[in-house]
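User: Can you write out an input/output pair for a complex, sequences first and structure second?

Assistant: Here is one pair. Inputs:
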Amino acid sequence: MSEPFDREAFDVRALEWRYVITDMICRAGSGHLGGALSLVEIVMTLFYRSMKVDPTNAKWEERDRLVLSKGHAAPVLYAALAYKGFFPKSWLPTMNADGTKLPSHADARTVPGIDMTTGSLGQGLSAACGIALAARMNKKSYRTFCIIGDGESNEGQNWEAAMFAGHWKLDNLTAICDYNKLQIDGSTYDIMNLEPIMDKWRAFGWAVFEMDGHNWDAIYDTLQRAAAVKGKPTMIIAHTIKSKGHTLTENKPESHNIKVPDQATYQKNMGAIAGGPVKLPY
Amino acid sequence: MDLHDMEMRAVYGRTLNELMDENPNVLCLEADLSKASGTNPEVAKKHPANFVNVGVAEANMIGVGAGLATEGKIPFCASFSCFASRRVYDQITISVAYANNNVKIVGTAPGITAGPNGGTHMCFQDLAIMRAMPNMHVYSPCDVYELRAMMRHMAAHKQPTYMQLIRSKVGRVFDEGVKFDPAHAVRLREGKDVTLVSTGYMTQFMPKVAAELEKEGIGVDLLHYPSVKPFDAETLIASARKTGGVVTVENQSIIGGLGGAVCEVLSEYCPVHVKRLGVPDKFGEVATEQYLFDKHGFGPKQIAAACRDLARVKKEKSR
């Protein structure tokens, strides 16, 4: 359930998550750091302020659903679920280890609290449409959230789903685009320009908002405004910074997937988190 | 009314309506081919709230189906077999099979039955590629009553599944009351000289072929495989041990489908001579069934000839 907003506590927790996420990826030897760090404030606001969830009953029927379509950002979702108590924090450092329950991409089969398995880009928004449609068919009041990437938005299936949600007027669906303006090969403006991104979604029948994806108030307020929209699905374009808070890789395309071959690189990466160090919770 | 007088797709629509009457979680998903699938107007009219047309967007249909399945729905998602399998192979692999979502994918107009739509629409590899996917059941019913039994099984079992659906009328193989069990092949005739294995569309032609061969003194052990995966290896191995030779027939490429499954099993457990009939490594084309049967050599005439060949070789060997 949502907790009262305490800015200082949220800031402290955000820093901790950045440590945890970087540590998980560094321990694994490689991983998708940039796209996980760009989502810290958004995912925390969803789990601590906006979404109805029950960590003691992960499959609670009335819970709000979240599809992390950019499944490679799973580390931020794993941090959220562990901190909320869906599973012990001691699982976190096992990411990608042999036999782990926490694979590099979000997996609903092994992780309590994940609503859809993702990893092949472009598929999550379709699944979120199905989940939102099921709510309507089953007369349930839960809300479905879906986080897509900006690079991921190159995939055509997103636009099939966009057309579908607009046509079916899925106003119980809120999508968030993590618009950090970087994809693997470079800037989204250079590789495959998404602009005018707001107009695109509007043209598909969505109500479209934009926000600073690292500002607690902006995120919460925009999610509230999106929930109030009737008759249309909502898209929130979240302006974010890839690898936010990690000075070594912040706003660099290389942050998409970092390689950590040795202890020296591990130390270098852990030491690059602005505001640190903090103690890891496991 | 004898359902054998109906087109397969009409029986699909009728049966889906019955399943939707019984269970509100059963859904009909279409991608602008609902008339071709036999669900429009029948299902669209009777169950408008559970009939979802996604437009010409098969990838989204599979994804929406997967999302619905996570909420306990049982979506039957239909399109031409070329679009329902190869076009959306990754969506099915990840959002359905890997994620273990209970989606039923129905590939209509399989193989050469795509007839007038020609080479772009003739999918000869759906059994092969769907069979290669972990956690996927792959079925191909041969007639209306088996189709009904199969659909009932699909609605009742939580299992990602791909099913071929012939649209046209087909010959009678079974009567009402036939049971479907994916673990078991169906023996349509006992014989000791040659094993003849078929699935789906081709099975309707087999009993007549076998009866004619019997008159010539060639006993045919006739096996129909409604499920290509799971694959009933035991029945095949026992039959091959008895006859010493196997002919496979399918409305598909001879690479990787039913014939492929048969060869995988027999080469490991009971190596015997196998002749695979179907489409060789070729694309389709606009043509009549007879033309394609003759061109690729998998019509009743060629099937009988392949069985005779095997029986003759076996006889010569035993001399």
